[in-house]
## 1
Amino acid sequence: MQFDRLKRREFISLLGGAAAVAWPRTARAQQAMPVIGYFSNRSPDAEAYLLQSFRKGLQETGYVIDQNAAIELRFSEGREDLLPRLAADLVRRHVSVLVANDPASALAAKGATSNIPIVFASGRDPVEIGLVASLNRPGGNATGVYGFITELGPKRLHLLREFVPNAKLIAFIVNPSSLNAQEMLAAAQAIGQNIVILNAANEGEIDVAFATVIERKAGAIIYAANTWFQVISERLVALAARHAIPAMYEWREFVTAGGLISYNTSGGGHSGCLRPRRVGRLCGDPDRGRFLQYRIDSRRRARCRRD
């Protein structure tokens, strides 16, 4: 999943345009080095490849961290309850722009400020979760991309059935704080696949979920898209391997850690997918102060990875 250079450049251009709205030309003259507040619900390790791509894209637009731009990094390690505190801390530091790389972080950023521009990436519908008013006219101070990440669940189910066609029961493990499992349940019913929904929002519930998988003799597992699952990816892969249960994951990092197969967007994630014409319009008119929202259908960019 190599990060597409053109798409990454467009995302960083949007970031630059957002910073321009927050800091008019006279203010930027006084603030020689813009400060980017970057925070995520992942851990530093889980965020590393995204942050690396972000830094590289920033350089392509002329901004080099610690030379002509600064960055403040915050990670909640999968603890969503910490995100409001992290967002508030970045706001107190008067950052030029907030970069929120997941829905929970974006919501925390929105709750912390109505003035500082927010550039977000979300795999969940930003209207549905209350991040923006609408896709066409989002309003407020947030802009970003919607990658349909969570909507790839049914496709993961179809792919896993091809790998494990004799699985009479498939377990769908989900963090209930970030995803409604009804879509997956409906997809399973439509193809006649028995499925059990197992909630896991902490380490103890992961153990309980796996005990249920073994007890009910599930033939395979699908993990829902969730940042906390990325934080504990190595543990999830190890549990599946220990019990010899085929499992489908969200990101390629699970496969790198030894998992069987993953299915998600190609490129460096949905944060790189922006329409260049509208991004250019936003960057070229920094005093307008009006943000645009782009809806990107990531299913057209989906890619399968397996060992």
## 2
Amino acid sequence: MTSGKADSDTAGTPATYTFPSGSASEAIALTFTDDAGGRPTATLTVIVNRAPAPGPEPEAELDPETAPESPPGSGGAAARTAGATISIPETVAISGRRARSVPVAVEAGRPRAFTATVTTVKGKRELASAGLTLERAGSGVIDVPLPKKVKPGTYVIAVRVRTLKGRHVGKTVRRTVTLTR
């Protein structure tokens, strides 16, 4: 453990400490001298988790066997990227009792945030978007609401995956979807 003295020039300056490799927990004690000459001590036990192995995030790939439960719609294959599985249907009916939305099923083995965007085939106009945050490993469905001006036809859905700190990870998954009546 390192000790030191802070004065008015360094008060509030953060300190850093690198924990020894292989330790499961470490006790930290902070002793300081207050203006009255007292020497209080604060202690804290820190649980040290092993860092993930370095390496690139997995490439997006089709894997129908590991897809999360398929959302309403038909067809479609799952794509894996950044430790997440994304399932987008090939065809979605947008009439009848069902709300006008495109369901996108997502599953992640760690906390992730997802954004699904519907664009024209040429990608020149964004028509709708929605997001979902998984605070812990799990699954969910992003229902991308479609405005009334969206007619039956072919569109592109792009799903981006981010860490909870907002950093884009993995490849953007793009799929063509056909909207029918």
## 3
Amino acid sequence: MATNEPQETTFLSTQYRHARQCLKEARFVALTWIVALVFCGGWIGLFGYIPPSDRPDVPPLVLGIPSWVVWGLFVPWLVLILVTWFFAAVILKDDEPLQPMPGFKEQLPYPDVEIGTGQAEYVIPGESGPVETGEGP
């Protein structure tokens, strides 16, 4: 049993790092989403919905588009595209190589399926032929 302890420690530490990275990514996405929602909603609420008695005859325009649309929708969306690129390049991390669970000799990425047993079978693209699903006659 003593030989499995280092493997379990390595496995658990890998899973802990993975969970910590996932939480970091989730916090970034949630915070970005909330900030964008508050900014866009606030801007559109303040400048897009003006009572008819307070509206100017000619609304302020930017390139022929009402300014509240440009500053409340288009510009934030362009900024969020840049934030997404930053997130993908800097914050988002690739998973570590797959490590087998403790107590198992090998963990395959695909289930061990016997051909012709009625279980779902993997089809290689470009190959033709029937796929047995185990349903029907």
